[in-house]
Description:
The chain contains six helices and no strands. It has helices at 5-17, 22-29, 33-46, 64-73, 79-86, 90-100.
Amino acid sequence: MSYSKDLRKSVIxxxxxxxxxxxxxxxxxxxxxxxxxxxxxxxKENDELSPKxxxxxxxxxxxxxxxxxxxxxxxxxxxHEHAQTFGVTQSAISKALSKLGITFKKKPFAMKxxxxxx
Length: 118
């Protein structure tokens, strides 16, 4: 979790505008010295206080109504084939199908009758 923008403003104000040390700011605000140093550096470079974006692939939203239509048109396709159509992973299709309540089980699971052996 990232620190609030208000805290960042307060730390930057304390260090830059009030001309205090980053070490004192880290002790007063309870933020690690390296974090204060990074905030001050980023603020001086581009006036930015927002947290850095989290690296990695952003989640792709699958339009559930479009997926449902695709399933109706091509019910015999595998999940990985639907994934290629939508440009997502097979697990994304699986999760979307779960949201729609669609399963592809051919037969419902049935318990076998147990016979008592003596």
